[in-house]
Amino acid sequence: MANKYDVIIVGAGFAGLSAGLALKEKGLNTCILEARGRVGGRTETKWLDKDMQIDLGGQWIGPTQDRMYELVEKYNVKIFPTQLFGKEKYYYFNEIHDQVPPEMMTMFDVIDDLAKKVNLEAPQKSPDINYQDRVTFDAWLHTQIDDEEVIEFLGRILAGGLLSSDAGEVSLFQVLYYIASGQGTEILLGSKGGAQQDRIVGGPQALASKMAEDYGSELKLNQVVRTVRKMDQSYFVETENGNCYETKFVLMALPPSVLNSKITFIPELPTMKKKMLQNILPGSASKYHAVYDKPFWRKQGLSGQFNLSQGWIMESIDNSNENREEGIITFFVYGVDSIKLNELPEEKRKQLLINELVKVYGEQAREPKYFLTQDWNEETFTNGCFTGHFAPCGFLKYGAIIREEVGGIHWAGTETATIWNGYFEGAVRSGEREAEKIIKKNELLSMKNM
Amino acid sequence: MANKYDVIIVGAGFAGLSAGLALKEKGLNTCILEARGRVGGRTETKWLDKDMQIDLGGQWIGPTQDRMYELVEKYNVKIFPTQLFGKEKYYYFNEIHDQVPPEMMTMFDVIDDLAKKVNLEAPQKSPDINYQDRVTFDAWLHTQIDDEEVIEFLGRILAGGLLSSDAGEVSLFQVLYYIASGQGTEILLGSKGGAQQDRIVGGPQALASKMAEDYGSELKLNQVVRTVRKMDQSYFVETENGNCYETKFVLMALPPSVLNSKITFIPELPTMKKKMLQNILPGSASKYHAVYDKPFWRKQGLSGQFNLSQGWIMESIDNSNENREEGIITFFVYGVDSIKLNELPEEKRKQLLINELVKVYGEQAREPKYFLTQDWNEETFTNGCFTGHFAPCGFLKYGAIIREEVGGIHWAGTETATIWNGYFEGAVRSGEREAEKIIKKNELLSMKNM
């Protein structure tokens, strides 16, 4: 006999946990099935030593991410500011600058203005989507600016830094949607006052763990869901290790590409939904950490925050911990470059990257004490970071059905969010959004059965 | 105990059947597992009456598709020419014309010239791929021409008619690759002397059936492969209904998106291969057939071959049978339009389409005797037609590993072909290509074991 629940939630990342808590609070009988041996989804924290955490996955929160700050307070986890002890710098035209090129400043304004016209709830109804979703961000930049290096730089900062993709992979509309959902480029790209303002002690995974603890024993780890079978009015959720759970509602709270490649629905999902899920491709971000004895860059007046217009490294940030002497530079490679770099042998890869660090930080960057990376592409239950993006035309084709449930099957996850899409905040809100829908539906069901 | 084979082939379309026959000829012990209850993959023939076949899927062959003509001869199936009794027509600028606009003729030449530079074997080494794979075909057309209707028309004919996608979904490079592999736009778009020259009596499925018969009893239908598990030097191929086959080599001969969503590999595929498979998205073609008492358009001097620059219908063709009085107009809707149209109720959809037929063929088109369609998007073991395309940047990222085997796992299917990619011919050649590789590897294995 299958265990019976009102709702089975698949995935114990921020979306799944938020949904579980919201549903539990209303008295619904729920269960969360998580494929991994831990909660937290696309976050993982490694401790190199006491007080020295390395956030291998998602890590920052910032202003207007209200639900995340509320959770931080509710669960009494500590936060600390991103370490900023100097000036942000930009490497372009083969030189180090204090500002991005003026053409870029203008373009940020142009893009923010375009983003304001995006209809977040019904993207397919946005005024210029027919053009904007059919042009890659890279190709569109070529229609706006002449300087190839500025075009490249803009693509790297916006398609790379935001969507962990190449500017040639995503449509202009995808970039605009993401920017609109994240309140504009200034907040999205910023540290103090922006999306990279604060860190969580123990990483967001520490917060996720507290949420899981609060949720309680009906969270089951190492449960790889393989099949969702509908029979009569019930769904039967079957796991790889042979467990079967019966439920009225299923909430899918995992990345679309994992969902698409790992879970079989019987009967099949409607064609549109299936195709929609196929069309959301995971980003490719490689995140590296170079740990040094001291944050030597601070003496040079540098914040550690750097953007590069060329080369493998797209951006770096000071990721040191408070109250520790060591300095940590965390840096990113995105999109096509991330894929190409992963093909190289490890030692060669490290050498190329260190050389680029030396270019901006000087010879002191040559010998890090530790050099770490985490390849989320390889994680079978994640399939790539930070977030998914539609292939061009995806919003045009599937914009209307992103959040549409299929019978009792609901869809959460940051990729479905309208506010802070791609962030923890979006994940939390998406989980709570679906919880609310399910609560209403369940009330109707209960009334019918009275 | 598992049954033991040298090679298990997954999929009995043209790639799988060709591979099976080539391997069997060399004395290898092989087995083909097919998910459906029939062979032939993306082809299906419906008989409305004796001698009146309706090809619901792939149907044409043409010059330079040498392997297909050899198979037709070997298996003694009959072919007949596409019915052409009048002039091809083009509907644009709100009028019917005998020729495409002159700007389009120029662009065909420009595109053919660009296609000549494509490196089919190593696409990632093509000279201009860094630009060409990062711009959608639609956006690139906007850099070449001013007239919006001409741009739209070109996108529909090339991205639509060839790749069953919207010009905003595919990169310029994807279009060029396809054109290069199919010997240029003139052959690809043509009927007599081109890719739509001949039809097969009973459809290509009749040919596939004869190939299957020749192959023999080791072709097993209704075997849905779910898991490919490697243990020691063997692979164990497990089906949904609990069968297990042991083999030295596995040949995957099914569409990439089906492969990606249906089959679990243990251990997992290398990350690059997995991401590559995710990045090949199935096209969206809807194929409709309107059957009339007579081919009335011939009296108007029309061939039935029409291209439209606007509206749902992208192109039509006379698909009547030889020696039958009825006339059949077959027409196509592609890409975003195909998805949007499928969302409409059936009766409304039919009305919109018939209205468009009336626009070009007159009131006689108003009342077809039969009106048929086949939605390949809904077919779970096909997932969309005609063929798959890379999302933009896909060739840049994964061009080097399209055909790269993973241990004893090989990859066939028309999406892997360098010649006639996307066609039956490409499928056949891909199957024979991998058969040859496996034969060589198997010889080496045998020598080692002597």
Automatic annotation (TrEMBL), chains A, B:
InterPro entries: Amino_oxidase, FAD/NAD-bd_sf, Flavin_amine_oxidase, Flavin_MAO. Its cofactor is FAD. Residues 14-439 form the Amine oxidase domain. The keyword Oxidoreductase applies. GO terms for molecular function: oxidoreductase activity. Substrate binds at residue 332. Belongs to the flavin monoamine oxidase family. PANTHER family: AMINE OXIDASE, AMINE OXIDASE [FLAVIN-CONTAINING] B. This is Amine oxidase domain-containing protein. It comes from Candidatus Enterococcus mansonii. The lineage of its organism: Bacteria, Bacillati, Bacillota, Bacilli, Lactobacillales.
